[in-house]
Design brief:
299 residues, alpha+beta, Nuclear Transport Factor 2, Chain: A, 6-stranded mixed sheet, 7 helices, 11 strands, globular
C-alpha cells in the first residue's frame, strides 16, 4: 500500500527535467521487474497507449493493439518461469513531451520443457509524457546481446496485422523515405563505412541484434565495415519502409521495417531476413536527418 501511494504521487507530478523523468522510469521498471517475477502481464500492458501502441518483440513481427501485446506477454510469462529479472536504465532523453529510454536487461528463465535461458540484452522505449507527468508507453523494442536461438520463443504465437502507414506531412515522409533508400543502396553495395559516416551522428548509439550497444561513431563505424563486407554476399533485393513518423522539434521518431533477400556462394545459399527498428533521427547543422539513436531486431 505504501509503495502504491508513493508511486501514485510520483505519477501525478509534472516532469520538468531529465532527472525527474529518470526517477519516474526507475519506479516503472521496478514494477515491471516485480511483475515478471509474479507472472503478472497486466503491469506492463497498462502503461501502453490505448490508441496506437507499437511493441517490437525480438523474433516476432511488431504488434499494434493492446490486446495482441497483452497476449504476447501472457504467453511469455506462462511459457517461461522467470527466476530473476533485472532492468537498468543506461540513458534517458527528454524531447518536449516525449521520453526516450535506453537500457539493459538480464532475464534468467526456464521454458516449459525445463530448458534454461539466460536472456541478456538491451531495449529502447518511447514514452509520451502527459502534462500531469503520467507516462504512456507508445513503443518498445528489445534484443539480445549475443546470439540466441529464436526457437526459444516459438511457443509464443502472434497475430498477423497490417503495418500502419505514416500520417505526417508528405514532405517529411518523402525526406525519411529518401534517407532509407540511400541506406538500402549502401547496404546493397556493401559500403559499410559510408553507411556509418553518412548516417550516424558522432555521439550516436546503435543497438542491433546479437551484440551489446555501440556507443559513438568511433565504435559504430568498425561494426558496419565488418558487417557489410562483401565476402561473396549478394543483396538481391532490399526494402526499408517507414511506418509511423513522429516529428518532435529537431528530432524525428520513426518506426522502420526491412526486408532483405540475400544470397551467397554464387546463389547456392539464400535467406530472407526481415525485421524492424525504432529510429531517432536528429537534424544536423545543415538540417539533414542523421541517426542519433537506433535499435534494430529480427522478426
Amino acid at each position: 500500500m505504501i509503495f502504491l501511494l508513493v508511486f501514485t504521487n510520483i505519477q501525478g507530478q509534472a516532469i520538468k527535467n531529465t532527472e525527474q523523468l529518470k526517477e519516474k522510469l526507475k519506479a516503472v521498471n521496478s514494477r515491471i521487474a516485480d511483475s515478471f517475477l509474479h507472472n503478472d502481464s497486466n503491469v506492463i500492458v497498462q502503461y501502453y497507449d490505448d490508441a496506437a501502441p507499437v511493441c517490437m518483440p525480438e523474433y516476432h513481427k511488431a504488434l499494434y493493439t493492446k490486446e495482441d501485446i497483452k497476449s504476447y506477454y501472457q504467453q511469455w510469462l506462462t511459457n517461461f518461469k522467470i527466476n530473476a529479472y533485472k532492468r537498468d536504465i543506461f540513458e534517458v532523453q527528454l524531447l518536449d513531451n516525449y521520453g526516450i529510454e535506453i537500457g539493459i536487461f538480464n532475464i534468467d528463465e526456464v521454458n516449459d520443457k525445463g530448458s534454461a535461458l539466460v536472456y541478456d540484452g538491451k531495449y529502447l522505449n518511447v514514452w509520451k509524457i502527459e502534462k500531469d507527468g503520467k507516462l504512456t508507453l507508445i513503443s518498445e523494442i528489445w534484443g539480445a546481446n549475443k546470439p540466441i536461438e529464436g526457437t526459444n520463443f516459438a511457443s509464443i504465437k502472434t497475430n498477423e496485422s497490417d503495418t500502419p502507414k505514416p500520417a505526417v506531412k508528405k514532405a517529411l515522409e518523402s525526406e525519411v523515405n529518401k534517407r532509407n533508400e540511400r541506406i538500402a543502396e549502401l547496404v546493397t553495395k556493401r559500403e559499410g563505412e559510408k553507411h556509418a559516416v553518412e548516417f550516424f551522428t558522432k555521439d550516436a548509439i546503435y543497438l542491433t541484434y546479437d551484440t551489446p550497444m555501440f556507443i559513438g561513431l568511433e565504435n559504430i563505424k568498425p561494426y558496419f565495415v565488418e558487417h557489410e563486407k562483401p565476402n561473396g554476399v549478394s543483396i538481391d533485393s532490399i526494402s526499408i519502409k517507414a511506418s509511423r513518423i513522429i516529428p518532435v522539434k529537431n528530432f524525428v521518431i520513426e518506426y522502420g521495417y526491412y526486408y532483405v533477400d540475400v544470397s551467397w556462394d554464387n546463389k547456392k545459399g539464400r535467406a530472407i531476413v526481415t525485421g524492424k527498428s525504432i529510429n531517432l533521427w536528429k537534424r544536423d547543422e545543415n538540417g539533414i536527418l542523421m541517426l542519433y539513436r537506433q535499435m534494430v531486431n529480427h522478426n
